[in-house]
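Friendly challenge for the regulars: who can give me the structure tokens for this chain first? No prize, just bragging rights.
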Amino acid sequence: MSVCGPRARPSNTMLGALRARLPCGPPYVDFRDVQEFTARCAATEAAYIRLIHRAVDLHMRHPPSASRFAWTKTDEMLVGVTEFPELREHGVKALLGLTHKRGLRFLLAMNNAIVIAVTVACRTYSDAFMAVVQRDASPHPVDLLCHFVPAVKTHMVRAFQLAFSTRESDGSCLHELYRACFAQMLHPDTLESVDIPRHRVCEYALALACITHARLGCGADGAPLAGQRLHEDTLRLIVGFIDFH
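First reply, four minutes later:
Bragging rights claimed.
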């Protein structure tokens, strides 16, 4: 039986670029099981999406300025120059629950990559939107703004989901975290596999050793020899020297 990381999948250009922006490795988190990891990912994704919606609503709260020399937050959104400081300030808070509040440097780098992706998505859509407005010269700009808000939210959320991605996407933030915290035990004959938390690998190996080596410390007749049976602490020490990948 071998222990390795989950099977990798091909990465795309965007995920590869975001991965290059993570200068530090993911933290080691003692998740209870894969179900807990999945639940925390879903909760974190929902929290960050709510944060994106609040940031857009905040920036679109002000009417466009009539002055050429003073821009409101709405103007910045429409021309694609906003920086979304709210995401940089509160984004890490939304991500902390994912890692049991561990790995602050990893989360800071992860949030930075997400903010870049979300900001680029907003600017790209804003450029396209303003091009359509100028081309059509609509006499009802307020009606156009009603379409702009839900559309730009959709594009920004999609950019966030690509950056956040899933644990199956090679090169994504979640994939790196999953590989650091889970191991894959593969049966050598059937190739059936199961993913288990890395902090429990030694426990499973110890249980396996206790089951398959019941005669350790026994005589030829199978009876235990006085003082010869391997103690549980000894088995744990032996298992501790095994290098699990």
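Residues 64 and 70 are 10 Å apart (CA to CA). The longest helix spans residues 104-136. Your move, everyone else.
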